[in-house]
Structures are given as C-alpha cells and as structure tokens.
Design a protein that fits this description.
Elements lengths: L18 E8 L5 E2 L9 E7 L22 H4 L1 E4 H9 L5 E5 L10 H10 L3 E6 L14 E5 L10 H4 L2 H10 L2 E7 L2 H14 L4 E5 L4 H17 L3 E2 L3 H6 L6
Parallel strand pairs: 3-5, 5-6, 6-7, 7-8, 8-9, 9-10
Antiparallel strand pairs: 1-3, 1-4, 2-3
Helix pairs in contact: 2-3
C-alpha cells in the first residue's frame, strides 16, 4: 500500500460555525495527567467526544456511547471548535488528549480543532480504537495517535474491532503507537500475531483493571512476558492516583 505522507502545510480549513459532540472536557479547573501510553505522567487536558462504533463490554467510559444505560442527549453537548480551543488555551498545559468514545467518528470536523490547538501552542494526542483510518488533514506535526485495537478478551468481536486496512494506515503514517489492553499470556500471543501481520510498532501493553488492586495483579502476571518480547509497558496512572474517578 502507498505510505500516507504527513502534511507539511496547514490545509485550508476553517472552524467557523463548526461544532463537535462532546461528553466532557477536563484538566483545566482540576489538573490531571495523561494516564496511559507513551505520555503517561505528562500533565494533560482532555476533550472526550461522544459516540463509538464498538460496544466493548469492558469499556470504562460507556457513558460516551451506551444508549441502553445512559441518556446520550444528557451526557453530551454540542461545543464549537472556537469554544474548545479557547478552553484549552486558557491553561498552560501543553498536551491535549482527544478521546472518546471513538473520536475519529467526527474527524471531518476535527481538522479545524487540531490546527487551532496547534496554533495555541499545544500538541495533540488522539486515543482511538484503530478501526477508522486517519484523514490526511490530521497527520501533521504535533499530532500523535495512540491506537488501541481491542482484542476479543475485551468483550468485542474482532471481526468488528480489528480492521487491517486502518491499522496498516496508522502503522504507515509514522505518528502512531499501538497500545493493547491485556490481562493474560494468551492476550500477549494475540498481540504478537497482530503486530506481525500488520507491521504495528511500537507496541505498548497496558494491564487491564479499573482498581489499583486489579492493575497490580495484572501487571505482575504480564510484566516478565512483556519484557521478554521487548515491548513497552504502561500502567493506568489515573486509576492508581484518582481511583478511576470520572473527569480525572
């Protein structure tokens, strides 16, 4: 496949009048950190977008997509690009994490937001499940994709959650890290299969858990095997620090 090239100049886009469906923004009023992956521990602001194209039973933010348990009209609001950029620019924190849900469901409206954030001196990370290939307008300097393909052990059919073409597009763009949730040695074997088949690198493994006790237990199960494969290992700092509180 042809390797997509990051843009070196800003596309002709405008955020005037554009809005996004947002669940929550946090990190300005009450400071927090990026809790996972390559930037774990960095001070961060979060923009959580609404809706997802997967229905993982172990998802820790079901209020962003699960209409069977939550009233999504009450859980989300429409916020303009200008409003979101202004909110982020009010903080000295450099890193803005755009997450979900699945944020790339709204990517046709995301380019103006990303460029507004970059113009405000921010850098941007997307947390994505890897099922939707990134638009060229998002592949610019200052943007990173933390791609988290969901295994069947996470409570989803891989026929839906593993999209080879999209994963390979992320791998080819040179701006992605691949972060897998795992709890068993079998999960690591499956990660290795996917990494080899779709040329995924670098690989990060994150222990499954929404409590400190569960994270510690999974970390101890996985640590030796992750180290033996020469992969990166990340915890979930927000769970350890804030007990998985919403908005932290």
């Amino acid at each position: 496949m042809t390797t997509p090239q990051p843009l070196t100049t800003k596309p002709a886009v405008s955020g005037a009048g554009l809005w996004l469906i947002v669940v929550e923004c946090f990190g300005v009023e009450v400071p927090t950190f990026q809790g996972e992956g390559p930037s774990c521990g960095h001070p961060a602001l979060f923009i959580r977008l609404s809706r997802c194209n997967l229905t993982c039973t172990k998802c820790d933010t079901p209020y962003s997509w699960d209409s069977s348990r939550f009233d999504l009209r009450k859980e989300s609001t429409k916020r303009t690009v200008a409003d979101l950029v202004g909110w982020a620019a009010s903080s000295p924190v450099e890193l803005v994490v755009i997450t979900g849900g699945e944020p790339l469901l709204q990517q046709s409206r995301l380019a103006p937001l990303v460029h507004g954030l970059l113009d405000a001196g921010k850098r941007v990370e997307f947390e994505t499940n890897g099922t939707i290939a990134p638009a060229l307008e998002l592949m610019v300097d200052g943007v990173q994709f933390n791609v988290s393909p969901k295994l069947s052990s996470f409570g989803v059919e891989e026929a839906k959650s593993i999209v080879p073409g999209s994963l390979e597009a992320f791998a080819a763009c040179g701006q992605a890290a691949f972060k897998f949730v795992a709890s068993t040695a079998d999960d690591l074997d499956r990660i290795a299969e996917l990494a080899e088949a779709h040329h995924l690198s670098p690989v990060w493994v994150m222990p499954e858990g929404t409590t400190a006790e569960a994270l510690i237990a999974a970390t101890r199960v996985l640590a030796d095997a992750v180290a033996a494969r020469h992969w990166y290992f990340t915890t979930r700092l927000h769970v350890l620090a804030f007990a998985d509180s919403r908005g932290r």
